[in-house]
Amino acid sequence: MELCIALDLPTAKENLELVRNVKDYNVWLKVGLRTFIRDGEVFLKEIKNINQNFKIFLDLKLYDIPNTMADAAESIMGLGVDMFNIHASSGSRAMQTVMKRLDKYETRPIVLAVTALTSFDESEFKAIYEDDITKKANQFAKEAMESGLDGVVCSAFESKDIKNITDNQFMTLTPGIRPFGEEVGDQKRVADIQFAKNAKVDFIVVGRPIYQSENPVEVVKKILNQI
Ligand code: C5P
């Protein structure tokens, strides 16, 4: 299991300070909407300047018509990131179109599909998808695998089932991790590290429990010890 730190701080300066503090640790860094919209490609370069070995997950959750998603995926190829994601609810045709477009490249980033956001509870999810989270997340995972994606974003509660119904290499990445029982914030389906381990999660994403703590590096060290 690997740790992916969400760089969701209010300014590039604060995010880069966090990156510098963890530069000697084997961690992934997640650049999401807020940070990428504000700081763009330059920010990605600054991360790599701090340590070339940092792996970057670009969390933009693409959702659009198939051709537009494939165009965006191709633009992402030019950014040199190691992982990005698209929404499974954009449909199998969109997912296949994205993967087909990336076929021509010798190497490509890991591509994940978002199943159910970890901020949804059952009733909020049902209001949109008219189904149970578990059932729908499993279906999305199967469609993503059949469309050639490498894995899914889900909560730790869906991970084990998804692992059981997909092949060995199919990965799960789980946000909503509160390693040591910290504040949940807007997240609804949260789990701790041991739960994620038991659910065979490949990547845990941790944001606020790290960057809002008094000593982020200590929290990172503690998490890495446990995983
Ligand atoms: O601060 P916290 O640990 O809750 O951060 C979780 C991060 O993971 C945020 O950047 C959020 O956008 C992202 N994320 C999520 N749920 C998903 C996909 C991404 O919380 N399904």
The gist of it:
This protein is an alpha/beta fold and 227 residues long. 46% of the residues lie in helices and 17% in strands. It has a single domain (2-226), classed as TIM Barrel.
Describe what this molecule looks like in 3D.
The protein has 227 residues and is an alpha/beta fold. It has one domain: Aldolase class I (TIM Barrel). The chain has ten helices and eight strands. It has helices at residues 12-21, 33-50, 66-77, 92-102, 122-129, 133-146, 156-165, 193-198, 208-211, 216-226, and strands at residues 2-6, 28-32, 55-62, 83-87, 110-114, 151-153, 171-174, 203-206. An eight-stranded parallel beta barrel has the order 1-2-3-4-5-6-7-8, surrounded by four helices. The structure holds cytidine-5'-monophosphate (C5P). Residues 6, 8, 32, 59, 114, 117-118, 153, 175-176, 185, 187, 205-208 line the site of cytidine-5'-monophosphate.
Q: Descriptors for this entry?
A:
single chain; 227 residues; TIM Barrel; alpha/beta; binds cytidine-5'-monophosphate; eight-stranded parallel barrel
What's the Cα radius of gyration? 17 Å
**Individual helix count:** 10
**Separation, N- and C-terminal Cα atoms:** 6 Å
Biggest beta sheet attributes: 8 strands, parallel, barrel
Structural class: alpha/beta
**CATH superfamily placement:** Aldolase class I
Shape, principal axes of CA atoms: globular
Reported CATH architecture: Alpha-Beta Barrel
Overall average pLDDT: 96
Low-confidence stretches: none
Helix-strand layout with pairing:
Elements: E1 2-6, H1 12-21, E2 28-32, H2 33-50, E3 55-62, H3 66-77, E4 83-87, H4 92-102, E5 110-114, H5 122-129, H6 133-146, E6 151-153, H7 156-165, E7 171-174, H8 193-198, E8 203-206, H9 208-211, H10 216-226
Parallel strand pairs: 1-2, 1-8, 2-3, 3-4, 4-5, 5-6, 6-7, 7-8
Helix pairs in contact: 1-2, 3-4, 6-7
